[in-house]
Structures are given as C-alpha cells and as structure tokens.
## 1
Amino acid sequence: MEIKTISEDQRKQLAKIHTSQDWTPCQVTLSNGVTLDNVYLVNYDDYLRSWGGINYEMLIPIEEITSISESPNALPASLSKKLYDAGESGMGYCVFKILYHNGVTLDIVTGNAVDFVPSPHGLTVQNIKDVLPHKGSTQAYLNGLDYKWCLFKSNNTQNE
C-alpha cells in the first residue's frame, strides 16, 4: 500500500482536533459513507519513529477519508496526556482507572495507544473527571476500544 499525501482540506480538519503524542484520535467518514469512530491519523514518519513496523490490516488509506472530526470515544486531551506521560504499566500495555463525575469507575487495559475508551451506558468521555495511571484491576477490567490507523505523508508546507 502506498502512503499518500494528506490534502489541504484534510489537514485543516485534522488541525481542529487535539493530538496525542504524534497521533490524533479521530472519527472519520469514508468515501463509501461509512463512519469510523476510532481512527488515529498520523504522519507516516512519526508513526515509524514511534511504532516501527506497519500492520497493514489496521490501515485506512488517507485518500478514502472524506471528513475528519472529534471521536466520541477519545479521552479529553489533558487526560490522554496524563496517561502517555505516565508511560507503560508493563511491557506493551497500560492499566488505568477512569473516574466519572458521578462516582462510577472503570478499570481499563490497553496497548500503548490509550485514547479510545468504552463508556458505561448514559456516560461519555466528556463525563470523565480524571484518570489514574497504573491503577485498577488486571483481573476485572474492560479493554480499550478497537481502532484503525491512517498514515499520511506531509505536504511539507506545515507541520501536521
């Protein structure tokens, strides 16, 4: 699969969304009308620097994306930053506790990409008060949500 250059329109849409590390958690709509809630958009070079090899089964081609917006499942930027700053809980995974404003808590286990999380019925990521890195049960937990990657090349006129 050839990695294509991000269009100017896509770059402008992407610039409106918070970035986690070098990648941006997004919702995207594809040219076939399908909307995907959990997609990381990232510059190809940044992806290789952070993740190394590419799993092509997890890729969405940038040229198939017609719109980019905030994901309804992405942690607020300050909370994802807190988790990334804390680092891994163990080799290749992160454990954290989500605290909701109403007292509900969830224990979550993810890989090293932590942005997309499930929410209990009636709550959203906007209802999250805090996250506690390296806290929570590794026996009774929910997994982070499945996601895809979209890699793109920069048009070299501005940083992505």
## 2
Amino acid sequence: MTARTHGFTGRHMLFVTSAFFAVVIGVNVTMAWLASSSWSGLVVENTYVASQEFNKKAAAIKALAATGISGSISMSHGVFHYNLRNRDGSPAAADIVVANFKRPVGDHEDFNISLEKAGEGSFTTSRHVPSGDWIVELISRRGDAVVMHEAVRFDTAGFGQ
C-alpha cells in the first residue's frame, strides 16, 4: 500500500483566501466600530481656517486663565446653572453670559441662549437641555470686555437628569 499525498489543492487555496478576507473584513469592521464609538469628532465649517485660528484662540484662552476667574456648571431639576468665581472664591462680576450648546457630533440640536443673571457671578436658564453629551461654550462679558470664555463638555446623566 502506498501513501497518498494530496499537496496544495484548490480547497486549500479557497480556505486561505477566505481566511485572508475574513481577517481583513473583521479588522475593518472592528476599527470602524471603535472609531465611531470612541471619537466624537468636532463640526467646523472650514477645517483649514479653524487650524489657522487655533494659536490665536489658544493665546486668548491662556490670557483669560491668568486672570484667575473660573466657571463651573451644574444642573438640577432641568435648570442649567453657571457660576463665575474669582481666584479667592468670591463671585466674579459679569453682565451677560451667552451659552452655545453643541452636540459633539452633528449640529441639528445645537442652540444658543443668553443666561439670566440670578445674582453676582450666578447665571441660569430654564430651557430644557436634552439628555446626552454636550459641549457648552460659555462667553461671559462685562461691558465690551470678555471676562471668561470657556468650553465644557458634559453629559446630562452626570447631573442626575
């Protein structure tokens, strides 16, 4: 009786080719899912212009940070609160605060609102903020001068909504 050797057959080639494409497709699907679930991205009108303005904006934010004024946000019972404080914890003086609410992805739910002054350094709005992730850009002014300009990313679930 002689030993029979089959060698590399068409079935082997089919298996190798199928395994190769299964790995490629599996990696692509995994990477696409990870990319869409972990990076929110940002929506800008023109990425080139945004990149050119970055250094100017970063310098302005550093100058504002040097003043020692800081802001904090909170939500309770559907009311959004923003508090401005000086370095020593006392309320910071501001006349108006404009809040630009933006979704991290897409702009169909974005809205802008002027917060109502509830006391020195304290501002609120009773406008409902839908649940989920938000980036709120807060611009505080006293007269024509910008007192504070910051952006805060938050999830309404973090506030017990």
## 3
Amino acid sequence: MPRLRLLCALALFFVAPAMAGSFAGTSAGASSAGSSASSGSTSGSDKVVLQARDDAAGFVASDGQIRGAMLEAALRHLREVDPRAREASDMALARAILAQ
C-alpha cells in the first residue's frame, strides 16, 4: 500500500499540473452544473467527485488498471450532469478530478 501512495503522489506531482489547464473546463463545468442544480448548499455532486479523488489517483497512477467504486460513481455522475464529460475519456475525467 505505501508503494501505491508513492505512485499516486508522483503522478499528482508530474501529471496533475500539466493536465489541470487542459481539463479545467471539464471539471469546472461539471462542478458548476452540479452546484447550480442543488439548492445552494454543498451539493451531492461535489461530494461524489471529492470522495473519488483517492480512486482517481490510483486509476491515473496505474494507467487505468485500478478502478475503484468511488471513481466509477463520480464518472457516471459527471457524465450525467455535464455534456462535455460524456465526450471525455475515463482517464481525462480522472485527471480532471485530481486537478480540482
């Protein structure tokens, strides 16, 4: 398990900054779509995506080999609330989750 954390940390250090600019629109749009659909308090959308960060890190670090349940829920949710997310790959969305 410590090895996975190290891989995740390295992936975040090298990959997230480079990808943040490219996918910021997707992740920001998904967040704003989710929060505008709520009553103004912290929405379930934000929680689903934030709770998937660890799974997203494992997914990115393993080059898509590790797929956690929280990540699957977040991917499904993002694609339901944001049309741009429907066109994005799982890897692109996982990186966008990490960039948030």
## 4
Amino acid sequence: MADSIIPELNIEEEVTLTSYGTAAIDTTTIVSNGAVFNFDFDVGEFVIKDGNIELLTGIKALKMWIEKLVRTEKNKFKIYETGVADEYGISLLDLINSNNPYFFIQAEVQRELTENLLKNAEILTVSNFVLTRETNVLVVNFTVNSVYGVLESEVRL
C-alpha cells in the first residue's frame, strides 16, 4: 500500500452465467466491479460490522452502486469531476422542479436513468419504468436486468 489512508482493494468476484439453449450450454464468466462500502442512507453513516466498514460484493454491491448513483446529483460534488462531459451522477432535480409537461419529465427521467445505469458493465438492461407523484415527491420504479439477476428498484426524487 502506498502512503494513503485509503486501503487498496484487489477484489475480483467471478460470476458464471449459464444459459441453456436447445443445442448447447453456453457459460460466460464476468469479472465484477469489486466491492463497495455499505452505507445506510437513512441513518447517514457507513455500516460497521466487526469493527470495520462492511464491504458488499455481487448483487448487494450493485444495489448500493445504483442507490449511490441515483442520489448523486451530477456536477454538484467536486470529488466526481473528471474534466469530461460524462460526469458521475444524474441530473434530475432541475428537471423535476421545472414547469415542463409531465410526459416530458417522465421521458427525460427514464432516459437519464437508463443512460447512466447502463454505464455499469454489470447492468444489461433497464426497463418497466413506472412514475407516480406523491405530494412533492416523484417516485420512480424500474427493473434492472443484471449479470446477477433481476432487481426491482425504487427512486424517490
């Protein structure tokens, strides 16, 4: 480890997918993005387990990645600035608080989420968007088809 307070993580998790076709068995091995720290967004703290910040891998890590992406407003935090147009996070707050027609907001939310979620190689498709308004909150439900299986996700904006 270099002179850094952040530990190096060399975690590679292999996931083997098997599809059963009519003639042969096709097996594909995917190397995951590794591990992420578990963060409890309701409490606002990292989850501590056995005296250390809990690490998540596989489908749990992907769920955390999705949650973090959706909660990170693009271009708001300097730590995510890379100098390229394709920054980390999503841009939805100005859109949701605009006076645009609801069908336009619905289409843009779907486009923005799909475009940014598909940047993760573990996500294969994003579909089944359902948007509903609850007072001052826009609730977005969608399905993520990943290398680990299907995830049902909900975002409250």
